[in-house]
Structures are given as C-alpha cells and as structure tokens.
Amino acid sequence: MDGTGSTRRGFIGGAAAVAATAGTAALGGPAAAAAPRARPAGAGRTRASGARTVAVLGGGVAGLTAAHELAERGFRVTVYEKKAPGGKARSMDVPGSARGGRKPLPGEHGFRFIPGFYRNLPDTLRRIPFPGNADGCHGNLVASTEVMLARIGHEDIRLPFRSVGKPPPLLTPDALRRALTGFLDAFGNIPVHETAYFVSRLLVWLTSCDERRTGAWERTPWWEFIGAARMSPNYQRLLAIGITRNIVATKAEVASTKTVSTCIEAFLFNALGRGADGEPDRVLDAPTNEAWIDPWVAHLRSLGVAFEIGSAVRDLRIAGGRITEAVLQDPSGAKRSVTADHFVSAMPVEHARTTWNAQVRAADPQLARCDKLQTDWMTGIQFYLTEPTPILHGHVNHIDSPWSITSVGQAQYWSERDFRADYGDGVAADCLSVDVSEWDKPGILYGKTAKQCTREEVAREVWAQMKAGLNDTGRTVLSDAKIHSWFLDPAVEIGGPRPVNDEQLLIHPTGTWHNRPSARTAIPNLFLCGDYVATDIDLATMEGANASARAAVNALLDETGSRSGRCAITPLYRAPELALPRAEDAVRHGLGLPNAFDLG
User: Fold this and answer.
1) Angle separating helix axes 61-72 and 542-560, nearest 10 degrees
2) CB atoms within 10 A of CB 394
3) Could you tell me where in the chain the CATH 3.50.50.60 domains are found?
4) CATH node for 53-89+289-373+509-560
5) What is the value of pTM for the model shown?
6) Cβ-proximal residues to 418 (8 Å cutoff; 6+ apart), any chain
7) Residue 164: what pLDDT?
8) Cβ atoms of 247 and 21 closer than 8 Å
9) In sequence order, which residues have a C-beta less than 8 Å from that of residue 411 and are 6 or more positions away?
10) pLDDT (tens digit, 9 = 90+) per residue, 558-585?
11) How far is CA 106 from the centre of its chain?
12) Buried residues in 503-516 as b, exposed as e (16+ CB within 10 A)
C-alpha cells in the first residue's frame, strides 16, 4: 500500500474485508507492449538444443509461475494442462452467449480478489507485458473503495476504505488495541466487553512467537481461541463464522487459529499501510483472461514455453530414484508418456496426490501426509443483468446467508469496456459474480443443500439469499425482472446421487500446517508447487500458489547447480515494533508459560 488513504477508516474497511473477501423464468436457463522488467542473472539467453527440459504438470497460477521463472532462466519448459491455462483463476466463455460479433459472456470459477498484502503475485503481474501499461498486467488492478456486510433482518454494515485521519506511527500493543477497538466499534452491535476480549485475543496472536503459532495455535480451533461459545450471536456471526467460512472456507469450530489469524494480521497491516503492494481490496479491470491469463500465456510462448492442453496426468513413474516419465491420458482414454529432465507437479492437491504411486510415495514420506489435507467446495455463479446494478464499489459479504455467499458487481470496474456492446447478445449490461462457500447446509427456498439442488435450483436459491440480505430494508436492490441469465461453474455436477466438483479448494482445519509439503521433495528431479504447499501466507490463495512455484524453481536451480539468479520470495509483513514482544514470548514459551497478553 502506498500510504495514500492509510487511515483509521481505511483500517476499518480493510479489516472488514477479512470478514468479506427476466424474473423467475429467467432463472431457469443457463446462461504496443510495455517492456518487462530486467530479468535475473542468466535469464533470457538463447536456449541451446542441450538445455535442460522441465515438464510442468498443471497450468494454473502455480504452473504458469514456475514456467515463467524457468523460461527466463533458459530451461526448455512444456506445460501440460487438462483444461485450460489459468486453472481456477481463469475466466471462461459462456457457451452460445455471443451475438452480433460480440464476445461471449464472461464466466468464471469465482471472482478474482487480489489484496494489497500479496507481494509475490503482483511482482509476476508487473513482468507480464500488456499493451499501454508500463507496469504490465499489474496496471490492470483496480482498487475497491468500500465493503459491505449484508445482514438479514439487521442494518447492513457499509464501510469505506478511505476517510480522514492517520494510522498510528508506531504499532505498539496499545496503539493496535486502540485501532482494533475502533474497527469493532464501527459494527455497533457487539457488546463492549466482547469487543475488548476479541481485541485481547488478537494481541495474543500478534505478540506470539513462531513456535507458539505453529504449535498451540495451529492445534486450537478459531472458535475456541476467541471464546465464541460464550459470546453473543452477533459476535459469533461476525467474528467467528463470517471470517472463517467466507475467507478461509472452513468452519469456525475446526478452523486453525494460525491460518485465520495469519490472514487477519496480513489484512491489518495492509490497511495500516505497512509492507503492502497496494490497497486492501483489488480486482481486475476486465475478465481475467483478457486482463491477465491470455497475455501471460502469450508472453510465456514468446519465451519458448510450449503448451499441451487436453490431457490429464495419471501417473509418475520412478526408476533409479528419479522420475523417468509422466503418464498422460487424453479424453478418449488413450495414454502416453512424456519425459523430461525435471518434473514440477503444479496440480491441485486432490489431483496431484492421485499421480503419486506407491513407489513415489515410498521415496518421500511427505507425499503420503498430503492424503490428510482436506478440500471443500467454494464455487462461483455469475448472474447477467439487463441493467447496471452496482450495489457498491466493492465486495458484499452476505454474512447471514446459509450458503456463505460473497458477491461483487464486476462491470463497474471494466471502465475500458462497454459490457452491453462488447459481450453477449447486447441485452446483458452487467455481471454480478458470486462465490458460494457452504454447499452442505439447507437453503431458504427449497430447504436443500446446494449439493442436493439442480443447477437451476442453485441459481434460484443463491438469488433468493442475496435478496434476503439486500432487499430487507424496503429498497429493491436486486430485481427478478433484471435477470438476463446465469452461469454456474461447469466443474460442478449436482442434482444426482453423487455430486462432484472437479475444482475444489484446500481448507484449513487444525493441524493442516503440519501436513503441507515443502516444494523440494526427496526425489531429486521432482518438485511441488500449488496452494497446498507450505508458504508464509498459510492460506489457499493465488499468492501462495505463486510463492510455492518460486520456491520450487529455486529448489530446482539448487539441484542443478544453476548460476542463474534465484527467485525472490517476499514474506508477509511483520511489524518491527512487535519483534521484542515476540522474542519475549519465545522465552515464555520455552518455559511453558502463556503469552503475556493471554489472560484466558
């Protein structure tokens, strides 16, 4: 964050973002380049025919990042991807939606959200050329100005990111206590003593040493850490359930305190203008493929990266202690093998671990521990509307929705595009993109879980839950008459006895951290990257995927003795003012004593 707008109200909005991140009939139907920055030492050289080869297995953010870094360092890289480059981050065309020379309506797995505390992904964005942008695809980021917690039967909480005032110059425990209390005061309906207790718990986390964080707090559920069981319903809904389900996609009763608190700490320092790349809430100024993925693939091709799309990785074969080949299967069922000097497994964990046979697992015990990692459904649906419907300039957390819904009106950010003129049939004028984080609780319309519903029922139910929170003040924010069509991620197959989601999300119950692998494996030519690999951010995010890919490339460079410069990996910001309390806590922890701020 550049310091502009780093105010108390900015903190309020940023911290609130932690809790965020045609009528009824219509619901029945689906719906010249800037120069890149200087390359690292050894990068950009002409590849000789004998250059080392790398097979990157998976073309999501992790795989594309690994390919990018390796290609800049002279490796011959081929990316193997089952569906399309970009993975869960890509946007996709709505089939049959284009008319009159327009582009198809843009669909997606879920909306993109790039907070300012991301540091590694933004660095990559700057290195992807984009016409007219001196800073590449990074120039396509747009900051939101507000956030809303939409309540059912309660007053909505709408908070700006900017106002008057300045953050405290020194982030002492007392200054942080005042700032955190000011944020919670903005909610207005949490008892004072509960506010004080929650702030005290965050101070415990902020002053805890790493050993306590990865030990006691990794084993403690967030619900227990903040004493939610004995608090008011508003406390439980806003500070326990809302944060964990909508951002971490894990139930508060089992979510790791380490993971949740790491996320809160990152947003807090971002909102206070410390160690951040930009504003707390940023989105792209166009559909993801237009603003980022397509330019990225084009740039990688210019660096010599090859892409093979359409085949799934089924097995890794090992001999002599090294991976000798990867077995791929095309949609017809035909299998073939590909060879390389090195292999980077960049698939989501639920797919990657199916490729590790008994011999591969025996070679590195950390691979077997990945079987304990859990995934869940966090999937998007887009509603296309016949009139612009900017509910607010930011994300809406439908905090009371049974399905833990978060939404954002996207067309308002696409200032260089005329949605009606550029996409679809000329009737749709806006895209309201919605993430559904809870697929196992009954809804308000049909009394069924999302997994039990048909696709059409999911669309109707999500719309009804959004209306319940936004239209309960007497003002019609969402109108059935404005629905043009909708699009649900095709990775989801529901309505039958065995619901399937081919693109799930890593979740973070207690103990998860200790089962996450490192980028380097005991197999010298196999490296791992993806949002499940252990990184500083400790959250399944595009930032984690990017940082893990950098770690995998560094491990590969070390293994090969390469003289190329290593990838920079920027850790999350830590306030230097808290270094002394953390050091004192390390002593207390070693003596078996609680944190000095931990009063129970």
Assistant:
1) 40
2) 27
3) 53-89+289-373+509-560
4) 3.50.50.60
5) 0.91
6) none
7) 36
8) yes
9) 388, 390, 417, 419, 429, 430, 431
10) 999 999 999 999 999 999 999 999 999 9
11) 19
12) bbbbbbbbebbebb
